[in-house]
Every structure is written in structure tokens, then in C-alpha cells.
Amino acid sequence: MTNNRNKRLIWQIPFLVLLIVGTVLIIRQQQSTPYQKNAGLIFGTTYSVTYQYGEDLQKEIEAELKKVDADFSMFNSQSLVARLNNGENPELSSDFIDVFKLARQVSEDTDGAFDITVAPLVNAWGFGFKNEQMPTKEQVDSLRQLIGYQHVILKDKTITMQKPGMMLDFSAIAKGYGVDVVARLLERHDIKNYMVEIGGEITTRGINPERVPWRIGVNKPNEDALNESHELQTILNVTDKAMATSGNYRNFYVKGGKKYAHTIDPKTGYPVQHTLLSATVLTDRCAKADAYATSFMVLGMDGAKQILERHKELMAYLIFTDRKGNLTVWYSPSLKDKIVK
């Protein structure tokens, strides 16, 4: 028995040596492969992609982003969403259908807090792609008749909007989807370490160029319409997660002594008025994080917590003001281990 055991051990030694040598070679290759960094403009904002790979993929990255822009840009008159809003009936791309279905799911899950038909109200309040005057109550009531994701019907590869004057706006989900699209491109190249960021929406995998997990800061919600303040509230370890943040502390205006923020409640037709200032959501898909972060800003603290109770795959970091006006933080218990600072 002893001799047989010794023989088996002797035969196993070469395989163990090969395994060790192979592991060392893979580690050395990973350490020697450079990190590429690409940046540019898309969707009216900036993007940046950092990834460990032997080639520069900027042309492929831009090609993917242009496809998303061609579907969802509110500023491109030839985009699918612009053509739909102009009364045309173009055949939809698979990406468009994918995002539309996800948006519909989030709308149903949040009881309409997320709604891609809210564009007429967003424009009326001066926060959309059209800058109009502050609406009267009569105008708000009239525009509310055009709001309702339930009245947008997808059949095969076409969309029908059941009320004349309805408009679609994917701004609250398109950046996140763009991040997902670029991440999928990197995955197709079998890239293990990367970070993709578009306008603050992020997804990561593996380790950063310093060989440590990716760490992303969450801005403190200082009222800063010029976007000049970058004071951090916290730093999160977001490795192998997608993250999106929505907030009312930058895009707002004051009129008649009252603050009007850019998040519009689809049900009331008015900018939200509650204590929640910033919602950061982490999950597996950036488009999903993007949509839920927007939803939470509509729902406020209590509504956001109810959604989180149902969806354990979502983690959130919420910043709000307490009764004394002080900044206060609440976060999902599952996020505790990801808070670096």
C-alpha cells in the first residue's frame, strides 16, 4: 500500500510543478500587461475607460457608444428616440428594446416613480432638452395627461404612443446602459481588470493599476450649480459592481425664494420636495442602478427603503437632511463592508 501511494505521489509531482509554473507565468503576464486609458465626450457628458489590455480599444469603444447615442440621444435629430418623438415609426434596434423593457420593469416596480414619458414636464420646468418658462398649474395639469409609461406599447420591433403629444426620454437610464455596453465589449476581449465611467455612472471589474480594488468616491451633496465642488462624503469599494448616483444638489434653480430641483415626480407634475439629496445605487448592471437611483430621488427615503427591502440585489447609500437640517447618511446593511472611508 505504501509503495502504491508513493508511486501516485511521484506521478502527481510533475502536474503540480506544471500548475505552479503556469500560475507564475499568468501572474507575470498580468503584471506586465499595461493599463490603457481612453476618454472623450458622449451623451453631452464625459466618459473615461481604464482597462488592462495589450491594445488600445478607443475606436471600438467609441463605435459602441455611438450606437447607444444613435438610439437614445435627445439632441440627435436622427436618433431613434428623436424620430419617435417626431411622430415617426422606425424599426427599433435590439439595444433600444432591451433598455425599453428594463425601463418598463423599473416603472412597474416603483409604481411609476421611474417613467420615460416624463419629458414634457421636465422640459416645462426648464431641466430638459428644451428650456421653457416655469409652468402654471393649468399647464402642469395639462401636461400630466401626457405622462404614463403604461400608454407606450411595444409590439415586435415598433413602439406606439397612445396619446398624441407624448414624448420619450431615456436620459435617466441611457448613461448607465452605455457603461454596460462598453463593459460587454471589454468582456468580449476577455479583459479581467477595468473601470468604465460615463457622467459619473460606473462599472468595474478586477483590480486597478495600483493592483488594489477599485475605489470610487461619493460626492457630498453641497449645493453647487456650477459643479465645482468635489468634496467627498465617502469612498466605496465597488469592485465587480455597477454604481450610479442621482441627486438634486446641482441641477436646480431658485425662483421666488423657493428651490426647484430637476427631479420631477411623474404623478404630481412638480419637482420633488423632500429631504433626500443624493441616492447612490450599486448592483450588477449599471442601467439598472441608474434607473433605481432616479426612482429613489422621486420616492424619497421611505419609498427607497421599501424598494430595497424587496430587492436584496440592490445596495444604496442615501444622503438626506435631518429635522435640524444636518446632512445624514443611511446605507444598506450589505454595503457596510464596502465603505472604505
Describe, in short, the structure shown.
It contains eight helices and 14 strands. The protein has helices spanning 2-32, 58-72, 80-85, 94-109, 119-124, 137-144, 171-188, 286-310; strands spanning 35-42, 45-52, 152-155, 158-161, 194-198, 201-205, 215-219, 232-237, 242-247, 252-255, 258-261, 276-283, 315-321, 327-331. Residues 21-29 have low confidence and may be disordered.
3D structure, described in words:
By secondary structure, this protein is of the alpha+beta class. The chain contains eight helices and 14 strands. The strands form four sheets. An eight-stranded antiparallel β-sheet has the order 1-2-5-6-9-12-13-14. Strands 3-4 form a two-stranded antiparallel sheet. It has a two-stranded antiparallel sheet with strand order 7-8. A hairpin with a 2-residue loop joins strand 10 (252-255) and strand 11. Helix 2 (58-72) runs antiparallel to helix 7, helix 4 (94-109) packs parallel to helix 8 and helix 7 packs across helix 8 (286-310). The longest helix has 31 residues, at 2-32. The protein is globular, with a radius of gyration of 24 Å.
Relevant terms:
341 residues; alpha+beta; eight-stranded antiparallel β-sheet; two-stranded antiparallel ribbon; 8 helices; 14 strands; 23% strand
The string of secondary-structure elements, in order, is HEEHHHHHEEHEEEEEEEEHEE
Helix content: 25-40%
Number of strands: 14
Q: Widest sheet: strand order? A: 1-2-5-6-9-12-13-14
Average pLDDT for all residues: 88
Percentage of residues in DSSP E strands = 15-25%
| Biggest sheet architecture | 8 strands, antiparallel
Radius of gyration: 24 Å
Cα(first) to Cα(last) distance is: 58 Å
Q: How many H/I helical runs?
A: 8
Structural class: alpha+beta
Q: Overall 3D geometry?
A: globular
